[in-house]
Amino acid sequence: MTAVETEKTSRAGDALPPVDRGPLRRRRRVRSLQQLAAVAITLFMGVPVYLIALAALSSRTALNDFPKSFLPTGLSTTTIRAFLSSTGIGPATFNSVASGLLTVLLALVIGAPAGYALARYVFRGRDAYQLVLLLTRALPIVVLSIPLAQLFLNTGVYDTVTAVVLIHTALALPTTVLITASIFVSVPRDVEEAALIFGCTRFGAFRRVVLPLAVPGLAASSVFTFVLSWNEVLGAAVITLDHRTLPAQVLTSLQQSPLAYRFAGGFLLVIPALVFIALMRRYLLNMWGTRAG
Asked: Is pTM, for the whole model, over 0.90?
């Protein structure tokens, strides 16, 4: 046997065992299913918004066409402009924006310290306290609205933005406390203790170390609170008459309105929530471990 044949025989004997590609195929299959699920959820949430926008921005002729086109035809802002010029829409929009922003501020001022206490301190009844927080969300809004309306009448804040902010804050506080508690738990205690060792006070360590790390979670809590306040309609309709929020105004004034006005109202109700979420998008993506584009 020559030297070349001996070398070939040695290489064949040293060949690597076949690679098991099963785990890689399973991982790709799972990833594909996750992407399909994400696309399905996006379509489930996005298609209704698109259809409402399409109807709101269509002319009367295009809106009454049958069968309707899935693509924009006969775009017009006449209905939107007529809706915006309707009586009470401008003040109601201002009341909704003011109520949402003030509710976010008040819920964070009250809920974030409570969440920090749940995350950092062990005290008797902590688990029961969290359970009670969840139970408060089980109460239907109509159960809270009637007693609160009577209370607001007695205290002189009935039919004001303040009343709307208070009832929306009461609705948002349980989730705000639980979300912020989960965020503060994820902040390493070591970095806070290091700040205390280097001379920071307890509040200074919270402001300079804990708070910047918790900003993405606080942004997520803010988005949830603002959307809850913006979409809530029953409580606002019960405790206000002349200072209604936009959903309450739409509910009460457009019941007898043409179909085009209803689509315009629904489209304008969606826009501010989407804008607020877009503004908070960078913090949300950072919280989920993805860099914002």
From this structure: no
